[in-house]
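Changelog-adjacent note: as of this version, every example in the card shows the full chain rather than a window. The one below runs 119 residues end to end.
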Amino acid sequence: MPNDVRFLLDEDLPPKVAAIARSLGLDVVSVHDIGRTGFSDEDQLRFAASEARVLVTRNRDDFIALTHRAFATNVPHHGVLLVPRSAPNTHPERIAHALAAWAARYAGHHPGVGFVDFP
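Full-length structure tokens:
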């Protein structure tokens, strides 16, 4: 499934999600795989934007606040997907398939910068 959506998984998601998602044809990297664990949420969001990647996280409150701040200050932001607790880390395949479904829904027309959504 070719797609133009690129994802960056935050450290609160297992790197296995990225491996499964890549096997589904998605462009997904985990901060675990690229040595970016321990960075602040703001740094992760800035990095995701610089790489034109949608940041995927469970950290709802912090990333909603950072999204509001990014809009207010014109900071680049390529979007955030919030993974709900109903998709537990013990089932990384569920999260990977949810990303694939979300990417298919937006294939060819990224929802735009600065959005917050749920996969």
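Structural remarks: The CA atoms of residues 42 and 70 lie 10 Å apart.
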